[in-house]
Amino acid sequence: MQKIAILGTGAIGASIGLDLVEAGYDVILIDQWPEHVDAMKQHGLFVRMPGSEHQQAVKAYHLNEIYTLNPQLDIVLLCAKSYDSMWLTQFIKPYLKSDGMLVCVQNSFNDEWVAPIIGKERDVPCVIELSAAITEPGKVQRNTNRQGTWIGLGELDGQLTPRLEMLKAIFTHVGTPEVSSNILGSKWSKLIANSMTQGPIGMLGMKSSEAVLLDGFFEIALAAGMETFLVAKQMGFTIEPVFGLEQSDFDGSPRDAVELLFKTLVKHIGPHSRNAVVQDHAKGRRTEVDYLNGYVVKKGLECNVPTPMNTAVTKMNQMIDEGIYPAEEKNLQRIQSLLN
Prior knowledge:
The chain is an alpha/beta fold. It has helices spanning 11-22, 34-43, 65-69, 85-92, 111-118, 162-171, 183-202, 208-211, 217-234, 254-269, 276-283, 293-303, 308-321, 331-339, and strands at residues 3-7, 26-31, 45-49, 52-56, 59-62, 73-78, 96-104, 123-129, 132-136, 139-142, 150-154, 176-180. The mean pLDDT is 94.
């Protein structure tokens, strides 16, 4: 029986952790939020998803408890925010077996800064589409059930390895996993979709289903997505079908492909969900926009591709973080001044 750790048990990590515990795997859940860990210790983990509710006893630990627990881990599923990736990877490195692996179950391209810490041979890139939110410590509202959850797995060098098939078997308890020989292309596809949704919807502070109905929103989203597509193309990446799409779905123009990714993601997350950036703004937390739209800006500068919309979206969300503006509909007009 392999020893698995979920490192970062926010809404996504907690959802995956519950699925794997229910499936009988030996799993420990590690998090830096004391109240969340205490709630899981005392009452177990509660996850509500479309069609079912789950209450499950779990082995939850505070960060400081890992030093005395001293686990020897075969698999670490890193589910933390991108800005916490480096220090958490350093933290867990002593407990990851020499032949173990760390899977970045995250948005953005965390493998860039995680692989140098643990070694490329122990890093496994991953793409996931799972919408969820923590309603209170120890309780999760999962908006996409297991049938609606999609996971992509691959190796940094594109090889199809036995360990990918092993991970695929594990993730069948979470959703529908697929193995890819172009996982970085899959991650760019996800980033195209995220650049159109996370930052642009996040700055409005509303449900995705509400944002897409606003006049002018789709034009902003499409511009951000097209910039991301052009950056990926200039860097030599080929976007890969994600979210269960087929290669034939991408046979049209780049605009058609970008628009399809946007519509598919919005459909997957459902009408009642608030994306991670909306939730972070509402709770006064740091967002991942610098690692999504901001990442596009950084890579655009490196390969000389202009990214004015992603730059404006990143700046607008930074201004919300700084308390200059609230997350509200008026930011659709304010972002025009940033573009001008």
